[in-house]
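User: Run a structure prediction on this.
Assistant: Running it now.
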Amino acid sequence: MLDERETMVADPWQDTNSRPPPPPPPLPPPPPSPASYFFLRVKGQQLLRETPNAPTQTL
């Protein structure tokens, strides 16, 4: 039983070296403020004006 378990589990040192590091967790979005809402709205209007063929999305 012990021999089977040892052959199934790979060497932990080799495992961590061969595998790329996991990506960092995404940062939580900052709390919304009136200024950021205004900026996002203006930015969205600019993007809609620049790309008229883009589908309109309601936030």
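The first helix runs from residue 2 to 8.
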